[in-house]
Specification:
The chain is of the alpha+beta class. It folds into two domains: about 120 residues, PDZ domain (Pdz3 Domain, Roll); about 230 residues, 2-enoyl-CoA Hydratase, Chain A, domain 1. The protein is about 35% helix and about 20% strand. It has 18 helices and 19 strands. Strands 4, 5, 6, 7, 8 and 9 form a six-stranded antiparallel β-sheet that branches. Strand 15, helix 17 and strand 16 form a beta-alpha-beta unit.
């Protein structure tokens, strides 16, 4: 059986994910730029106007009146002489209010350099998960090593973990489980940006007993060395491959798809190889693992379904695509100046209009001699996102397999087709959506994530994989 836990080194890389970790050390205090209120206000104006131009429905989760009040609140919080670090938490709320996992206000470019070169600044505790009321500790990289794996943090500097989650989660949208994952991976950054500074007074729960500890900040060098020294005490984790296939016993095959980003021809050869082995060994059960799949090309998802079903289905109930000059410019650059020829239907459409369709009718996949006719179980969780979420939704809506695990990371009715934008004065970058994707069954009113048929939660503090074990026992 495979160890399905997230690698510690990957977890560490995710702590500071948005800008490159190779940023040069610098004297951030000497070089940090300050902005006038007028410059910041102009960036706010640009952000709001651009999102309105490119997004198919920016008010799907917040009313126009409420968003207008948010703009006023953001502008009131800006003043002359602000640094990027000071302005970011205030302005990020404008993207967070869109409440989409794909709409993200990226960290200031100078942030990683500041954290790496700024001496003892880092919150030294790696968080495994948020359990609904506490942060669960994965590793304490402080000099004192006071917190142990599995400790449940109740509060930091007098702020309860639940309140802290609400405060830190205001910068981005998405479902609660998606926000929780993001905050746990990036707690070092968020505490720094929101001014929750060390030493950190922590109340925690261990073996049903409440205790407290003071955790001091550490430098980047000490943070890395302490993690390396203490990692040996954690469950060993294998690196995550893009795709993984094996037989877990004589009649049960396991296929882990951790991305949908391969070239279609390469992906088809991989699937042909897997399903040829399944056919030759006469497997009766196939477990497909999408728990770590953040998406990619939905055409690969549709290709996979042709190996596990011959029933009619469709991947989407339609789309709504906002036409804008901003996205035309981005598309044309991506298509090396061939946009008007390659995608005439979009480039010829009038800016400000929306291209809509109700999707294709459900259709049977083409004949596949490698079609698997046994029992198929698909594992999903909060990391199942984007095109992988679309795949899981199609399976759910057309009952093509049995879903096991936790709810997916975003609603089945979701937004995507990202545009990458940059504010003119601060240089803050952000992404937002240009398309709305309607779930496979066409129900636009359902705002839930993809729900499993069997709800099973993995315990991150054990070496076992409870979700996979459940599927194997089915």
């Amino acid at each position: 059986m495979f160890d399905m836990k997230l690698p510690l080194l990957l977890l560490l890389m995710m702590v500071l994910p948005v800008v490159g970790l190779s940023a040069k050390k610098r004297d951030t205090l000497a070089t940090e730029k300050h902005y006038s209120k007028h410059q910041l206000a102009e960036d706010v104006k640009y952000l709001v106007a651009t999102v309105a131009d490119v997004h198919p429905d920016m008010y799907h989760s917040i009313s126009k009146a409420s968003y207008s009040r948010l703009i006023d609140s953001v502008l009131a919080g800006l003043h002359d002489g602000m640094t990027a670090k000071e302005a970011w938490p205030i302005m990020a709320r404008l993207i967070g209010a869109l409440n989409e996992g794909h709409s993200v206000f990226n960290y200031p470019e100078s942030l990683v350099g500041e954290l790496k070169a700024g001496g003892n600044l880092l919150f030294p505790v790696l968080i495994r998960e948020f359990n609904g009321s506490e942060f669960i500790v994965r590793l304490d990289a402080s000099a004192g090593d006071k917190l142990k794996p599995g400790d449940a943090i109740i509060s930091i500097n007098g702020i309860t973990t639940e309140k802290l989650m609400g405060k830190l989660g205001g910068y981005a949208g998405g479902l609660p489980q998606y926000k929780a994952l993001d905050i746990c991976r990036n707690l070092i950054v968020y505490l720094h940006l929101y001014g929750v500074n060390g030493p950190w007074h922590i109340r925690y729960l261990r073996n049903n007993q409440v205790d407290s500890a003071v955790v001091n900040p550490v430098s980047w060098a000490d943070f890395r060395s302490n993690i390396a020294a203490r990692a040996k005490d954690l469950p060993k984790i294998k690196p995550i491959a893009d795709h993984q296939f094996d037989f877990l016993n004589t009649d049960k095959a396991y296929l882990a798809l951790n991305t949908l980003t391969a070239e279609p021809a390469v992906f088809k050869r991989f699937l042909d190889s897997c399903f040829t082995s399944i056919k030759n060994k006469q497997a009766k059960v196939l477990i497909i693992d999408l728990r770590k799949n953040g998406g990619g090309n939905s055409a690969l998802a549709e290709m996979l379904l042709g190996y596990i079903t011959d029933r009619p289905f469709r991947m989407t109930g339609g789309v709504k695509w906002k036409v804008s000059q901003e996205y035309k410019d981005q598309l044309n650059e991506k298509l090396k100046g061939e946009g008007p020829q390659t995608m005439a239907y979009y480039f010829n459409a009038i800016n400000g209009t929306t291209i809509s369709n109700s999707g294709d009718k459900p259709a049977r996949p083409i004949f596949n001699d490698l079609l698997f006719k046994g029992n198929v179980l698909v594992l999903i969780g909060p990391h199942t996102f984007s095109s992988a979420n679309m795949l899981a939704n199609t399976i759910q809506d057309y009952k093509l397999a049995t879903l096991v695990g936790e709810p997916s990371g975003e609603p089945a009715n979701d937004y995507g087709e990202l545009i990458f934008l940059k504010l003119p004065n601060t240089g803050f970058t952000f992404t937002t959506s240009t398309k709305q994707f309607i779930r496979a069954n066409g129900n636009t009113n359902d705002q839930h994530p993809v729900m499993p048929d069997f709800m099973v939660k993995d315990n991150p503090l054990t070496p076992a994989d409870e979700v996979l074990d459940f599927a194997l026992a089915k």
